[in-house]
Each structure stands twice: as structure tokens, then as C-alpha cells.
Specification:
four-stranded mixed sheet; transferase; about 30% helix; globular; Peroxisomal Thiolase, Chain A, domain 1; alpha/beta; five-stranded mixed sheet; Thiolase-like; Ketoacyl-ACP synthase III; 3-oxoacyl-[acyl-carrier-protein] synthase activity
């Protein structure tokens, strides 16, 4: 039976490491514009206890989101062994386009996918390059889009990339800035005869009261340029939303695949923060009246932070290449991908390794 399979993965993790200790001299402000009275050292320790994040990666000043994407894409193509000229689709998921260091203008013309195609030297005009904006679930939405193209008979091979430089769209005076990081992850997908591949997918968008849980807004501390906007998050609302809706979406996806919970080997969930993803997975298992196994969910948020659309493909690449201690994948293993983010959007994919 023909299904969508991942035949190569790649990631690009920037070299610059910014540890929690690097924020000790940073004053933090609240939404009311006042400096938070708690000492930065105390805030940082509370942050680590909740999020699990000890360090994150920032892109080099010479890089932008599209260059990170191209690097990850090149590695995925190399590991897949396919000729890049055979690609039918090149999809890049991001949220802010190319943002220069020190700037807040989002550059999306031409599309990042077009820039990546150019950087990779792909000349085939039938390789259609386009971007996907779907919040943090963007890369997984790109995978779902490619799968739909395949099933419609419009494509057979695709490169799907998630890349972001969130460090350039957050306000340094906002303590939430410690969550975010930069990076890129990619996968080559092919439609071919297999016993594995994508078995089922599900998506949700809640865009009423939830639409502004993550948005661009004024800084907490007034800056000389009063028109500047930064990414802002209502963390409590995001947490409540995710815990309410993501577990049931994951269950719908797994049940739709025809498999049982006991068949599941790994869960690759968007690396938002440790407390939230652990709570989501536990809630998912409780829908079946069970407790989550200790080894079901690999995590890289502790050392890489939250790089939005890049977290799932980066984590999958690390596990696939044996770079995530205690976690590995073999042919026939059943995995569940899931993500949640701005929109508010949710998606999940049930996949059996080829």
C-alpha cells in the first residue's frame, strides 16, 4: 500500500549557546510596564523549575531563518539519498520570515521556500516551493499538506522544513524571552509502497477567544521607537488551552490509525516547555485510564529551548541519528507527532517507521 514515509531527516542547531546564567544581569518587566521586584536569579530558577530549560541556541549574526532552513534541508536530502531535482514540493514552515539581528521587520518576499530552493540550487520548475504559517504546529502541518498532495496524485517527493529565529522577535525585558530559541529541522517525504508511513492525521483551529493567546504587541518597557512590536504570550491561557484540547486530538489521531495505546513506541511533541508537554502526555494516557511510561517522550527543550516549528523535526532527527540518549527508533515502531501553537492551532500525526 502506498503511504507517505520519511526517508531522510536533518537539523541545524546554531552554535551559540545562551545559558540561564546569561540572564542574571537582565532586568525583567511586567505587562504593566513596571520592573518585577523579584531578583533575576530567583526568577530564573523558578523559570528553570517550570520549563526545564537550562540553555538555548541563538543563530549567528550572519544567518537568518532561510539559511538555517537550507542547512537543515541539505542534510535531510543527503541522508535520503534522493536527487534534489526530483522533489515535487519544498515546504518551509515558519512564523516571522527572515529577521535580521537587531531588527523587527519580517521579510517574507520572496517566500522562504523560494529562497531555500535557490540556495540548494534546485532548478526544476515543477518543484513547487511555498511557505506554511500555522504557529508552532507549522512543520507538522507541512507534513500533512505533503501527504495530501501525495494522495491526490500531485506529488511523490517532498522536502518539509521547520525553521525559526525567535530570539529576534522577543523583548529582552520580558521573562518569556528565556523560553525561545533558534534552529531548523527537516525531513524528506516520499510516497511509496510500504507497511509503514503516515496512518492518520488530525487538525484543529480555535480562533475565537483563543486567537490572541500569542500575538505581536507593545513591549513591556517603553522604547524610543514606540511602534515596535514583540511576540507576547499569555502563558497561563496557552497552558490551559493545550491541556484541554491537545490530549483529545492525540487520542482521535491514534484511534483513527486503527492502533491501540499499547502499540505506541514514542511521542514526539512540540518542545514548548517541560511542565506543559509532560502534563499533555499524562492527560493523553489518562484518557485511556493509564499512566504514561517514563520513556515514551524524548525531550530536547532542556538544552535547545523552544524553537517553534523546528522543535519536532529537530528532535526526530536527533533520535533517528542516535543523538538522544535513551531513545531510538526501529522499523515498525509506531510514533505519534503532536503540536500546539498560535492560532490557536493543534495537529497530530500517527506514523509507523518504515
Amino acid at each position: 500500500m502506498k503511504r507517505t514515509v520519511i526517508t531522510g531527516s536533518g537539523s541545524f542547531i546554531p552554535e551559540e549557546t545562551k545559558s540561564n546564567q546569561d540572564f542574571l544581569a537582565q532586568p525583567f518587566y511586567g505587562a504593566d510596564g513596571r520592573r518585577l521586584p523579584t531578583e533575576p536569579a530567583v526568577l530564573i530558577e523558578k523559570f528553570r523549575a517550570i520549563t526545564g530549560i537550562s540553555e538555548r541556541r541563538y543563530a549567528d549574526t550572519g544567518d537568518v531563518t532561510s539559511t538555517l532552513a537550507a542547512a537543515a534541508g541539505a542534510r535531510a536530502l543527503e541522508r535520503s539519498g534522493i536527487d534534489p531535482e526530483e522533489l515535487d514540493l519544498l515546504i518551509v514552515a515558519h512564523n516571522f520570515g527572515d529577521v535580521l539581528p537587531g531588527g523587527l521587520q519580517c521579510d517574507t518576499v520572496p517566500a522562504l521556500a523560494s529562497r531555500v530552493k535557490n540556495t540548494l540550487g534546485i532548478r526544476n520548475p515543477r518543484c513547487i516551493a511555498f511557505d506554511t504559517l500555522f504557529g508552532c504546529p507549522g512543520w507538522l502541518m507541512g507534513v500533512i499538506q505533503a501527504d495530501a498532495f501525495f494522495k491526490a496524485g500531485m506529488a511523490r517527493k517532498a522536502l518539509v522544513i521547520g525553521a525559526e529565529t525567535l530570539s529576534r522577535v522577543v523583548e529582552s525585558f520580558d521573562r518569556d524571552s528565556m523560553l525561545f530559541s533558534d534552529g531548523a529541522g527537516a525531513a524528506v517525504l516520499e510516497f511509496r509502497d510500504t507497511d509503514g508511513g503516515i496512518l492518520h492525521s488530525s487538525c484543529l483551529s480555535h480562533c475565537t477567544d483563543e486567537v490572541a493567546y500569542l500575538k505581536m504587541d507593545r513591549p513591556f518597557r517603553e522604547l524610543p521607537d514606540g511602534d515596535q512590536r514583540f511576540m507576547k504570550m499569555n502563558g497561563r491561557k496557552v497552558y490551559e488551552y493545550a491541556l484541554t484540547h491537545v490530549p483529545s486530538a492525540m487520542k482521535e489521531c491514534l484511534d483513527g490509525s486503527g492502533h491501540s495505546l499499547g502499540d505506541l513506541k514514542k511521542i514526539f511533541i512540540h518542545q514548548a516547555n517541560q511542565k506543559m508537554v509532560e502534563a499533555i502526555v499524562q492527560a493523553f494516557y489518562k484518557l485511556y485510564g493509564q499512566e504514561a511510561p517514563a520513556d515514551i517522550m524524548p525531550m530536547c527543550v532542556h538544552r535547545l529551548g523552544n524553537s517553534s516549528v523546528a522543535t519536532i523535526p529537530t528532535l526526530f532527527d536527533l533520535v533517528t541519528r542516535g543523538q538522544q540518549p535513551g531513545h531510538q527508533l526501529e522499523s515498525g515502531d509506531l510514533v505519534l507527532f503532536a503540536s500546539v501553537g498560535a492560532g490557536m492551532n493543534i495537529n497530530a500525526v500517527c506514523y509507523r517507521c518504515d
